[in-house]
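Lab meeting tomorrow. Please check the following:
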Amino acid sequence: MGTLDGRTALVFGVANRHSLAWGIAEALSAQGARVGVVHRRPERAEKTGRLADRIDAPFVGHCDVTDDAAIARVVAEAREALGPRLDILVHSIARAEVADLAGRFVDTSRDGFRSALEVSAYSLVALAHAVESWMTDGGSIVTLTAIGSTRVIPNYNVMGVAKAALEAAVRYLAADLGPKGIRVNAISAGAVRTAAAVTVPGFRETYREAERVAPLRASVTAADVGAMAAWLASDGARLVTGQVLQLDAGWSILALTGGTAD
């Protein structure tokens, strides 16, 4: 028996087999949950559908999270396919303009700032609002953040600011939804090699450095993120809410990294 037998999940942000959202969807399914998946663009339907078949997903949809009507539509469609109760919502959505992920943060464009905050942070609020009435017996909302929310990471720039806003949203949502038994948490997953991450200038160097100096001398994988998300969705985490959990082999505890590794 799995720790999530009989539960229903909806995972936003599945892009490809390397994405953290997919790692989470697989982990939830392995623990017995029925998992619906949502991707961002209609042209990803075939690729996402093939992935969804691996876990017998009852629902595959697409959604532009900057459009409230699109959110309402996909939640209604998912509710029809998955049933009257949602137990788990996963938010794995972030985006910034490539031009704003290089050079100086002070040069961030107004439109780039607005877009990064709307897609990467406000979308969690919008999705939580859309599923609140569907989570009729409490539940778990999990999102993904990064250490760039509290520390300066080269070239992370506006995404770091967006993740800081996301973490604040986690706390406020946890306070709002806690009386209904809905828990809201974030996983700060360190440097994980995903298709999106490698587009950030300098990511490969950061990834190698994190693995070299982290106390556990290990890299975080999508499967590791999935395992933590599955735990957060389980009864074992029933009193955990409003938290940012570090999943980075200890990288975040270090004040200095140069010369600390063997």
